[in-house]
TrEMBL record:
PANTHER family: REGULATOR OF RPOS. This is Transcriptional activator protein CopR. Residues 246-265 are annotated as: Disordered. It comes from Candidatus Sulfotelmatobacter kueseliae. Residues 27-141 form the Response regulatory domain. The keyword Phosphoprotein applies. The modification 4-aspartylphosphate is found at D76. One of its GO terms (molecular function) is transcription cis-regulatory region binding.
Amino acid sequence: MGTYTYQDYCGSDCLFGCPWDYDLAMRVLLVEDEARIAHFVAKGLREQSYAVDVVSSGEQALYQAAITAYDLVILDVMIPPPDGFNVCRELRDSGQTMPILMLTARDAVDDRIKGLDRGADDYLTKPFEFGELLARLRALLRRSKTLQPTRLVVADLVVDTAAQTVERGGKAIPMTAKEYALVEFLAREAGRVVGRAEISEHVWDEEFDPFSNLIEVYINRIRRKIDAGFAKPLLHTRRGAGYILSLSGETPEPKQTAVRSRDDV
C-alpha cells in the first residue's frame, strides 16, 4: 500500500505538483481494472492538473481512444479482453501515435519485450512509486512533442509550468488546480483563439457536460484573477469563436501577396 503513496513522495505541502521540468499532458486515458490503483493514480494525476479518463477493460479503452484525442495512455496489461498487449497493437494498427506507458504486475523480460514490440513506449512494473510514474510520463511527453519552455510569458503574465504557479506584474496569483490547467493551456496557445470544444477536450475529462456553462464560469474566475487591477486586460472573448490570451486581443494578420488583375496590366 505504502509503495503507491504520492504524498509521501511529494510531501504533504504539495498542492500544484512537483518542481520538476514539466511538460503537461492535458488529457490522459488510464486503463486499469484494479479499482484501488485506478483511483489512486487518477487522483494523483488530477492533482498534477492532468485531465484523466478511467476505463477498466480493453474494449472500453479502444472505444474511448476512437472518440477522444488523448495525449498519453497508461495501459495495464492484465485487463478484461482484449488485454493490454492487444489493445496496444490495435491502437498502433489504427494509426494512433500517442505515447503508451504499460503497467503490469509481471516482471518477466519476455513480457516487457512483448509489450514494447506491440507498440508501447515504456513499461512500469507494479508496485511502483508515484514519483517514478510522473517522471516516466514527463519523459514520454518530451519525446512526443517539441520541448516546451518551463516559463510561459504573455506580456507581464508568467506561468511557471515547473512550479505550476502564475504571477502577473511580479504578483503571485493563487489558482486552483483546474484554474491553473486552463491558464496554462491558454498561455501555451497565446495569440490564438481557442474554442469551447478545444478547451473541454484538453482541460476536462469525459464527465464534462458540453451543455454546461462551466468553461464560462472558469474563464470569468481567471479573468478576475489575472486582469483585475491591471491597466490592460489579457484574456479576451471572441464572440462566437472562443477565447484568446494576448495583450491586444488580436491574432496576427496573415501576410498577403498583392495580385494584379488583367485590368492592371
